[in-house]
Specification:
Largest sheet: 6 strands, mixed
Distance between the termini: 28 Å
Low-confidence stretches: none
Radius of gyration: 27 Å
Structural class: alpha+beta
Oligomer: single chain
Number of strands: 28
């Protein structure tokens, strides 16, 4: 809206004036308010609107990504001891934080809001909501946490299979021993709430049911909350957290992790990044719990430096391990805000440095422990997953016949199948062509859970006319195994009818 009936409009694509219908859109006078359409492709668009009477200018820049290629930003956290230093060249930006509280709250919130629904993931949401409730400053936060716990326990109740453990999904009878055991461990954390005063009757009931379900699952898998001997890193942490058998805990960690200064090598082959992060996080929590803070912090940095844009790790498995680690860091009372630093060559307290919102190029820790947020760019490109394992894709019409030529208003079904079969945790990622929309959500970019099936069928509709070819992309990724991913590459649809 301008003060008169005209507006000067310019539109640039990748730094060059965009030409629309043989007319350059560059300080082109148009009737206000301005409304026009143009086809977009991957690249950077910059639009500017100027009021010719007042000279006022408004502008916006939008980057359109390539299909199957996404750029996000990690917000890892680093803990630095006396003598450590860091420079901007290792990240896009550096920010001193006064404590780890904000990062911890972000981690538990992101984990509690995880959108997938297998037994382990729901239990992870319940665990995160348990700590959310305990840390809540406001009644609204407690109410949200309570709701997540109550809904989660109701779902877990549907997945309990007598004498077997937890099924992967409510309608399934398949019990993964590994994921069922994780579910048991997570639900045991509800004991943190058991003795808290002023729990609502519904929450108190959900806590009791959740602990009872965990105990039943433990009987099925012959698990103990406090094991007689250490057979896993989770067992080690259970003992360390209870203040028992510190020597055995330390020996177990020394057998699985080798330290050489700040360098760490996991000596047991974990086979996947998620499993390795999980091992490092629990081991770090163990060491901090038994008082070996220096080595615990080395492991902590290996894990919390990988937090993504949402503030969590790749899966619920390593995210829960990170929650455990952060809880031990909080208990250790690091007094991060009291560290003495040299920032950009100037000496100051960490609490002062935390007020600097930008412009930090170097940090040196003179005394104490400093927490620094490191922002870095992360690029994901589905093309690197090309046909790692077979993924079949079809677009069918109402008669179940494969179609490539589309018309406005057509109702279709996108069918994606896994010829070699489903693996626990497989998710379908879809980036639709601009002319298509998912009927259920209206989205062009979405993720769906196979939930134990070898095939997914997604209803689509053609929501815009176009001429010629458009492309879409799909990728199957596993939520527990970061390395399991496959994409058939860009797929093509055609339209024979235009506006």
């Amino acid at each position: 809206v301008t003060s008169g009936d005209k507006a000067l409009v310019s539109l640039m694509y990748n730094g060059k004036t965009l030409v629309q219908e043989n007319n350059p859109i560059d300080s082109f006078s148009m009737d206000a308010p301005v409304d026009f359409q143009f086809l977009v492709k991957a690249g950077s668009y910059f639009a500017k609107v100027e009021d010719p009477l007042t000279g006022e200018i408004d502008s916006i820049e939008v980057v359109v990504g390539e299909l199957g290629k996404f750029i996000s930003y990690t917000q890892g956290l680093g803990l630095f001891l006396k003598g450590d230093s860091i420079e901007l060249k290792t990240a896009l930006s550096l920010r001193v934080v006064p404590s780890i509280e904000l990062a911890f709250k972000k981690l538990i919130t992101a984990t509690a809001n995880y959108s997938y629904q297998c037994c382990e993931q729901i239990a992870a949401k319940v665990l995160a909501a348990t700590f959310m409730y305990m840390m809540a400053d406001k009644d609204e936060e407690r109410r949200i946490a309570e709701q997540i716990i109550e809904v989660g326990i109701a779902q877990e109740k549907k997945m309990m299979r007598r004498l077997l453990g937890f099924a992967m999904y409510p309608e399934s009878y398949y019990v993964s021993e590994y994921h069922s055991q994780l579910t048991v461990r997570y639900l045991w954390y509800l004991k943190e709430l058991e003795d808290l005063p002023d729990l609502s009757p519904l929450l108190s009931q959900a806590v009791g049911i959740g602990i009872s379900l965990a105990d039943k699952g433990a009987m099925a898998h012959q698990m103990q909350a406090l094991p007689d001997q250490i057979q896993s890193i989770e067992d080690a942490y259970s003992l360390a957290r209870a203040g028992k058998d510190s020597l055995a805990v330390r020996q177990f960690i020394d057998n699985v992790i080798y330290f050489s200064g700040n360098e760490v090598v996991v000596q047991t082959d974990q086979g996947a990044a998620v499993a390795e992060r999980t091992m490092l996080a629990y081991a770090g929590a163990c060491l901090i719990a038994i008082g070996d803070l220096e080595r615990g912090m080395i492991l902590a940095n290996q894990v919390i430096g990988q937090f993504n844009e949402e503030g969590r790790l790749y899966s619920t498995v390593d995210s829960v391990a990170a929650i455990v680690l952060m809880m031990e860091l909080r208990r250790s009372d690091l007094k991060i805000g009291e560290a003495r630093l040299r920032v950009n060559g100037q000496e100051m307290m960490a609490s002062e440095a935390a007020k600097l919102n930008y412009g930090i190029e170097s940090i040196e820790v003179l005394d104490g422990v400093a927490a620094v947020e490191l922002r870095q760019e992360y690029e994901e490109d589905w093309r690197v997953f090309s046909n790692s394992f077979p993924v079949d894709v079809d677009i069918l019409n109402d008669y179940g016949i494969t179609v490539e030529d589309l018309s406005l208003g057509d109702r279709l079904e996108l069918v994606v199948s896994l010829p070699e079969g489903y693996q626990a945790g497989d998710l379908l990622h879809v980036s639709l062509a601009p002319c298509l929309s998912w009927i259920k959500g209206g989205n062009t970019l979405f993720i769906l859970d196979f939930e134990g099936s070898d095939e997914l069928r997604i209803p689509l509709i053609v929501t815009s006319s176009f001429e010629g070819e458009q492309h879409f992309a799909v990728c199957v990724r596993n939520m527990f195994e970061e390395e399991r991913a496959s994409s058939p590459g860009l797929l093509t649809v055609n339209c024979l009818v235009t506006n």
